[in-house]
């Protein structure tokens, strides 16, 4: 694997100029063409006032324009914040406050209701080349905000590359392969795909308007959630080039990976978080509940059954009011708030310590109940959400994505002999389509809010 000593697209543009870099519905770009386009856009951004160290919002769905802007703004030396275009203005303003932002590029979304200078995508001939420095700050990525207001995890280029190196080495992803950009740039998993592509000089495919089946044509690797893989396997045939899938976002049923492997698709699963620039541990899916071992030079230890992480992929801090607030303790360990145990020489997650709730004095870990429900062949996603109860404190409610051929009543009857009485949900409901995830992890806070506003 090449040692990067320049902007990756510029380095590949010199050493592998004619090799295809980007596959889109409008045509392909080789590395030389990509490098030239990125530089021309960087000149355009510089002419509009973007300087090294400026904070820039990239508010967009995945598109060729958004991807090229992502690279060009980095080449300008900007501190880049990819932002979900569906985030309501009230939440957006609360998040943007204190992040020292100057500009915004919104190619397919309304401008933020926030005092920022709007940028246009202009291709201008000339030279704009902020020096490459792997240790400099590259991106801000918002955390899920599961325990409060979302934080902006600040990553260096080297942190992104360290995460990418661990995954590419484990999965044997190299310059001969192609990865579908199936996850949004504003999510750390989407950026993980970008940096694996840039590290290896492979091919990236953008097909945002196509169905998943069509988008996967000519792709050898993809990042999917279990529901997407289920639907893919239910079709008459799987994409002929697809040979490896990195699964995430939800618990993974053993039957799913067994069917995929039988169809010739290698399945990998793991554990990741925003602060670690995506994937932390991973393994070839084997039907067991573990998430593998640390990737690359990462280290994991358990302290009172909490997962602690130390890794070169970790964020250098949380950006707030021009300062980097600590992510780790003084020894460099991130206290993840994820519970875990070691079992059969791999990490097994026992659930978010923050997710534990009590019903009549009994502790319920939602992830443990969800694992049981996912053993039912008709269930593709399962979530246990606490609902306040005057007598019990809180009671569990099941939200399921399931096959129409099997009723909620039948699944509830099946679960009765597999769950303890205090774990057994008091309601069984379908997972609302509006919260189905769109390829990324579903927010438990959003599920709880939906449940509170949609009582039976």
Secondary structure elements and pairings:
Layout: H1 8-15, E1 20-24, E2 27-30, H2 31-47, E3 55-59, H3 64-75, E4 79-83, H4 89-96, E5 103-105, E6 117-118, E7 137-142, E8 152-156, H5 157-171, E9 178-180, H6 188-200, E10 203-205, H7 212-215, E11 221-224, H8 226-233, E12 244-247, H9 254-262, E13 266-273, E14 278-284, E15 293-294, E16 299-303, E17 306-310, E18 317-320, E19 323-325, E20 334-343, E21 346-352, E22 357-359, E23 362-364, H10 366-373, E24 379-389, E25 393-402, H11 408-416, E26 427-430, H12 444-453
Parallel strand pairs: 1-10, 3-4, 3-5, 5-6, 9-10, 11-12, 12-13, 25-26
Antiparallel strand pairs: 1-2, 7-8, 8-18, 13-14, 14-15, 16-17, 17-20, 18-19, 20-21, 22-23, 24-25
Helix pairs in contact: 1-2, 2-3, 5-6
Q: If you had to describe this structure to a student in words, what would you say it looks like?
A:
By secondary structure, this protein is of the alpha/beta class. It has twelve helices and 26 strands. It has helices spanning 8-15, 31-47, 64-75, 89-96, 157-171, 188-200, 212-215, 226-233, 254-262, 366-373, 408-416, 444-453; strands at residues 20-24, 27-30, 55-59, 79-83, 103-105, 117-118, 137-142, 152-156, 178-180, 203-205, 221-224, 244-247, 266-273, 278-284, 293-294, 299-303, 306-310, 317-320, 323-325, 334-343, 346-352, 357-359, 362-364, 379-389, 393-402, 427-430. A hairpin with a 2-residue loop joins β22 and β23. α2 (31-47) crosses α3 and α5 (157-171) packs across α6. The longest helix is centred in the N-terminal third of the chain and has 17 residues, at 31-47. The radius of gyration is 22 Å and the shape is globular. 45% of the residues are buried.
């Amino acid at each position: 694997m090449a040692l990067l000593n320049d902007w990756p697209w510029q380095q590949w543009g010199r050493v592998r100029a004619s090799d295809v870099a980007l596959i889109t519905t409008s045509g392909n770009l080789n590395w030389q063409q990509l490098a030239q386009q990125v530089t021309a856009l960087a000149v355009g951004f510089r002419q509009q006032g973007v300087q090294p160290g400026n904070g820039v919002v990239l508010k967009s769905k995945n598109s060729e324009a958004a991807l090229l802007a992502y690279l060009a703004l980095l080449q300008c030396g900007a501190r880049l914040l990819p932002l979900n275009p569906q985030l309501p203005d009230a939440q957006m303003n609360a998040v943007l406050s204190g992040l020292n932002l100057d500009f915004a590029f919104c190619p397919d979304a309304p401008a933020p209701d926030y005092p920022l200078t709007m940028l246009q995508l202009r291709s201008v001939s000339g030279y704009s080349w902020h020096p490459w420095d792997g240790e400099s700050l590259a991106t801000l990525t918002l955390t899920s905000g599961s325990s409060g207001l979302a934080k902006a995890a600040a990553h260096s280029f080297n942190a992104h590359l360290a995460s990418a190196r661990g995954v590419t080495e484990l999965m044997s992803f190299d310059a001969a392969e192609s990865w579908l950009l199936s996850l949004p740039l504003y999510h750390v998993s989407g950026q993980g795909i970008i940096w694996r592509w840039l590290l290896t000089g492979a091919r990236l495919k953008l097909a945002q308007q196509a169905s998943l089946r069509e988008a996967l044509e000519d792709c050898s690797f993809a990042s999917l959630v279990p529901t997407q893989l289920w639907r893919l396997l239910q079709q008459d045939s799987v994409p002929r080039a697809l040979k490896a899938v990195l699964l995430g976002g939800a618990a993974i049923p053993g039957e799913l990976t067994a069917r995929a492997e039988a169809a010739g698709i290698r399945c990998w699963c793991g554990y990741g978080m925003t602060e670690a620039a995506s994937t932390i541990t991973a393994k070839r899916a084997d039907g067991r509940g573990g998430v593998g071992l640390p990737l690359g030079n990462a280290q994991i230890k358990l302290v009172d059954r909490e997962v602690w992480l130390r890794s070169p992929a970790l964020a250098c801090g949380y950006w707030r009011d021009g300062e980097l607030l600590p992510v780790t303790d003084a020894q460099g360990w991130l206290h993840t708030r994820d519970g875990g145990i070691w079992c059969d020489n791999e990490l097994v997650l026992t659930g978010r310590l923050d997710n534990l709730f009590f019903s009549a004095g009994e502790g319920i870990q939602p992830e443990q109940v969800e694992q049981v429900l996912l053993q039912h062949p008709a269930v593709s996603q399962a979530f246990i959400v606490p609902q306040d109860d005057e007598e019990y404190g809180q009671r569990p409610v099941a939200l399921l994505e399931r096959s129409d051929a099997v009723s909620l009543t039948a699944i509830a009857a099946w679960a009765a002999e597999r769950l303890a009485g205090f774990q057994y949900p008091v309601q069984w409901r379908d997972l609302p389509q509006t919260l189905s995830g769109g390829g990324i992890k579903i927010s438990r806070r959003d599920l709880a809010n939906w449940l509170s506003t949609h009582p039976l």
